[in-house]
Amino acid sequence: MTVLGVILGLIIFVVVPTVVRTIIIVGIAFMLFRAFNAEPENITFVPPKPRLTRLQKLGFSSYEGYLRSDHWKNFKEQFFASERINRLKTIYGRLVCESCRGVGILDVHHKSYKWLGYERFEDVELLCDRCHSARHRIFKNPRA
Fold first, then answer.
1. Cα-Cα-Cα-Cα dihedral of 88, 93, 98, 102, to 10°?
2. I need a labelling partner for 69 at 20 to 30 A (CA). Which of 12, 36, 39, 100 fits?
């Protein structure tokens, strides 16, 4: 910190009343915030789609291609053989939807795409068609 900065600081804290001092400090903080967070005017930032970027690093051109891959098929086989699924079979006598406990066609649904390509069993859930469709409607229209 420069000598001038120290002198200015002392003047502000000794001479200026508390309300004015607060206004000055807030103003300085705001100017610093804007200066350090300013975006260059000539650059347009377009964030990448994280899901597709992650899949492209794994060699897949689309999410649908990933769902048809041997990797996903092997993961689902391991998931269906997991203790969690065996517990569902034991409790209900068959596979059921983890949301509504209904039966029928069941899908493995990603609860999050954070670990896409490196899924853990806790990242997915077994859902019936109705609950699976509902999850995707909620995801696409969170306010609906």
1. 180
2. 100
Do residues 30 and 72 both lie within one domain?
no
* Encoded tokens for 29: 């903080």
**Do 57 and 118 sit in the same domain of this protein?**
yes
> Any residues with CB less than 8 A from the CB of 40 and at least 6 apart, and which?
none
**Model pLDDT, residue 110:** 92
CB neighbour class for 59 (10 Å; exposed up to 12, middle 13-18, buried from 19)? exposed
Question: Where is pLDDT greater, at 141 or 133?
Answer: 133
Mean pLDDT taken over the chain: 79
Would you say residue 102 lies in a domain?
Answer: yes
